[in-house]
Amino acid sequence: MDLFEKLRKNPGPLGANASRFHGYFTFPKLVGEISNRMVFNGSEKIVWSLNNYIGLANHPEIRKADAEAAKDWGLAAPMGARMMSGNTDYHEQLERELADFISKEDVILLNFGYQGMVSAIDCLVDRKDVIVYDSESHACIVDGIHLHQGKRFVFPHNNIENLEKQLERATKITEETGGAILLITEGVFGMDGDQGDLKSIVALKKKYQFRLFVDDAHGFGTMGKTGAGTGEAQGVQDEIDIYFSTFAKSMASIGAFIGGKKVLVDYLRYNIRSQIFAKSVPMPLVIGNLKRLELLRSNPELKDKLWENVNRLQSGLKERGFNLGKTTSPVTPVYLDCSIESAAKLIIDLRERFNIFCSAVLYPVVPKGVLLLRLIPTAVHTFEDIDQTLDAFSHISDKLKSGAYGKPVTANS
Ligand SMILES: Cc1ncc(COP(=O)(O)O)c(C=O)c1O
Questions:
Q1: Fewer CB within 10 A of the end CB, N or C, for the chain?
Q2: How far apart are CA 376 and CA 250, in angstroms?
Q3: Ranges under pLDDT 70 in the chain
Q4: Residues 95 and 78 in one domain
Q5: C-alpha span between 18 and 5 (Å, rounded)
Q6: In this structure, are 381 and 306 located in the same domain?
Q7: pTM for the whole thing?
Q8: Could you report how far apart the first and last alpha carbons of the chain are, in Å?
Q9: Domain residue limits at 211
């Protein structure tokens, strides 16, 4: 069979609906400066779908630093991989400052979060080792684990009892192979907004020997007293052996990093293939990230404002009877009983009539008959944005229940 013919016949679960969805539900274009309000489909919407948590994306000092760095350096510098010719004082400075901020001995920069995570997992374990991981881990963790040639055991999301069983199995195997155990979970889970139960996981270190790898993409900059992340929030930062975050969320940039003991970071520097065989992070991004880190550290009011908005939005939704699941972070999921047919009408209404733009997630990511509207409050949202959104949600909920979007989903349907 011709490969392209195969692609045409089976475009994948998301691609199957491309002709109906493209440009509106998928690949929508938000026009204008990254902010609380942007233009979509010709008119202004309140935007709740950007991970610009502490509002750095369009902060004047950041825009200035980005522009000046681009003018001074262009996008080419430095050329080559870090190991060969692409290392600079700025890259090392950013690593040192990040390490200091997250209280780790050292940090290595990664060009991208997804690729960096895949490559880090690939780099750290071999066939003798066993990976134990949370069932709701992000795609980059799952894909990194696909590269692993040894055993892997999954535990149901945050189920510590079951995790112990998997650790027992893993321990038996590593005793035979002479390998080690790597336990991977997340700080804040990006869909549901709940936190990995790091405290309980860390407590298991007394009984089992493993190293803990935490993807804190949504926790970095948002969680903990200083914004150093979910480990700081749960009082277990020192027990996270391998700390990962992307720059793509709170830092409103590109790139990622891993922090930990020097022995870990030195090993990664000389072995992680996504960095050894790839061009170094361009200078404007490194300098821009240095500025972002400086603002994150010196302007705690940005995180305070984020949380003020989180609390107003989440308490307002709860007061109106909405189900927000288990979130304990800024990620604000709203779960509605809704068929796929009704979901399309509801989302169009929310966007076109109420001028609210948020992400919508359906089966198979959530169970059949559930629509997850995912709101990401940020420091740049206003109380007016929140109150307008709360009113809109009350309206769409009433309409959904009254059948205005189609037959309501009931327990038996
Ligand atoms: C939990 C988590 N890990 C990793 C990534 C990937 O990071 P990046 O966008 O830098 O590739 C994301 C999404 O961006 C994420 O949500």
A1: N
A2: 11
A3: 410-413
A4: yes
A5: 17
A6: yes
A7: 0.97
A8: 41
A9: 60-298
